[in-house]
Every structure is written in structure tokens, then in C-alpha cells.
Amino acid sequence: MLIDRKQPVWFAGENHMITLFHPNSEDLAISISCWRCTYSEHGEGWALVVQNDAAASTLNALPARVIYADNAALGRFVVARFNQYFDGFRDQGYADLAPRAARFTQQGHGSRSHHITCVADGVTIELIWRDMLDGSLEIFHNTSGPIPYDVSAVICHCAHGSIGVNGKQARGELKRIPGETYSSAFLAFSETWAATAPR
Fold this sequence. Notes:
This protein is mainly beta. It has 2 helices and 12 strands, in the order βββαβαββββββββ.
């Protein structure tokens, strides 16, 4: 049976993340938010949003703040609407950054690993998630920014996550919670952001 109300969809696709921290600290070494859009008013495509403390991550080839995208309009859209309000990206001026042109490829190997490559500006960024710990549908009301959304996604926390640039691996530690499957490296499939009111 169909639900009684239909909600306008702003984004459908994926939004995977890896965040590495300074050892024994809550301070970020590097965080990436990787979007693959299959439906939006700005078309399809990819966007990669990076927050990098090069002194901690040792990835000096990456800027401190950068957006890579194969669809510039989509890149600006996901950053302005969603990503700039995420922890680690909030109040960092991402909405004012112009996306840099990039190419993306993706390979999946079931629950064992997921691999995304971004090539841009003379850098090759390799993102790898390994050993999925779980997979569950999460549905929540997102109020991180000024516009509320209903969000749903299949979240798969992973035991391992790595970020490499031109063959060099980022330093930093994943955040894990003892006794839980939570990880700061996770895959978010079938992610949908729906408006809670008409546009």
C-alpha cells in the first residue's frame, strides 16, 4: 500500500564516508564525504568533499579544503544543501568553494571491500572500505542545517577504511566504539534526502 503523502526528493544515491583522527584524540586528521548521485534536479554524477589536516594525515598533495566533482552543478548542490552542515565540515566555507573537475571509478566486492578512485589535478585519490560489520536501514529526520529533511539509507559500518593519495596512505585512526559495530568508515547505499514540505 502506498503511503498517504508523497515527498519531493532532493537527492537519491550514495554517500560514503571515511574519517581518520589524530591518535587518541577527537581531532580530525582527514575526512572525506563521497557522493554518487543517481537522481537530483542537477542530474547524475559524483562529488568528493575533503577536509584535510596535512600535518596530521601527511597527505600534502591534498588541499586543506577541496571539492572534486564530475558534475560541477551537482557538486555545488550537495555541498550547499547537505555536506557543509556535517560534523567536520560545518562553518568551513565549503559552500563558497568551486568544485574541481575529476573522474571517478568504483569497484565493489560484496561485504569484503569497496573501492572508489578519484583522479583530478594530478592526484589520484584511492578510498577503500574493508570488512563490512553490519548493514541496516536507517531512517531519520535530519535537522543539521536550516532546512529539515527525511533521510533514509542502508548504512554499512566497516572495520577498516583507508585514504591514499598518489600511493601514499593517510595517517590517522578510525573511531570505533567498543562492543558496537559503529565505525567512522561507513558505506551509505540507497541514500535518499526528501523534503518534509513542498519546495
